[in-house]
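Continuing the series of single-chain predictions for the mutant panel. This is the parent chain; the variants come on the following pages.
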Amino acid sequence: MIGKPPRQPGLGIRMKLTLSYVGLLVFAGMVLFAVVLVLLHYVPEGHLTVVETGAFAPRRIDLMRQAVKLAVWGTIFLAFAGFAAGWLLAGQMLRPLERITTAARAAADGSLSHRIALPGRDDELHQLADTFDTMLARLEKAFEEQRRFTANASHELRTPQTVMKTMLQVAQANPGAVNLETFLTRLQEMNDRSIDTHEALLQLARPERGDLHREPCDLAEVTRDVLVSHEGVGTDLNPVVVTANLPLLRQLVDNLVRNAVIHNRADDPLVRVSVGAGDGGRARLEVVNAGPVLSEEVVATLTEPFVRGAGRTRRGRTPGGAGGSGLGLAIVASIARAHRADLRLRPRAEGGLIVTVTFPRT
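Parent structure:
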């Protein structure tokens, strides 16, 4: 096994528990016999009874000799009985560990769908099994998301490359039939799409690092600076301090506002950004737009990479992605996780989205 340190062979847990039971039982028996011997010292030295017929009359020394014999044989009996009972009892107690070990080996071999599902009443081993099942479920979900992300990323990166390759092949096959201006414009669009996707992937990975520099920031001031590049946005900005990485905080606000503006309906100019203190004094950022009507099921998936909501918008893009890459809200979710902030998406009944980010108390 990779990374397994060398270990000397030793006794198993079942044998250790069995020997501990034997030792405890033998020790208790020896203490009991020692107490009996101590009590026999209070018996008089002479005969305990007077037998006129000349038969055997026990004395204290006789009783002590018999007690020693019984102690020896009793200790041997307790050792064997304790070993047998301890072995059975230890096996019964450690049986859940065998199921946990089997599940752990299956997980080590790559099977994350196996569950222990240990029956019985709650105790330490059942808590361990339940915790292990929870860990397996989370790992299975994470690996599934990773596989889906890899497949989607491969598709997103391959599509513009394939389109550009096809355009170049067509142009090479028949150069005279190609409109150079249209060809270059389309080629530039595909190249920009490829670059945007690469940059979005890098941005998505960046907040996951644990070495981010954080500093006190006025969320209202940061939002105000971001809104300089966006027109027609209603604001309600109240000063509130958060401890965050300033560049990532700007990116979070910018992605949310850009997403709201891009997917806002042309006939409804509603895009509203509000900043203030929420419940418990926690900083709260809310962005609202009036885009297409979205279901709860669709909204629940918008923070996943490359997921786009249903419905076309006035700019031909779909909710959930900055620049059409499907990574805008995924980047927001990644930045929120890095700052331990709560991200909540809710659909508006009239259409559009309400996005709320609640930061931890400073």
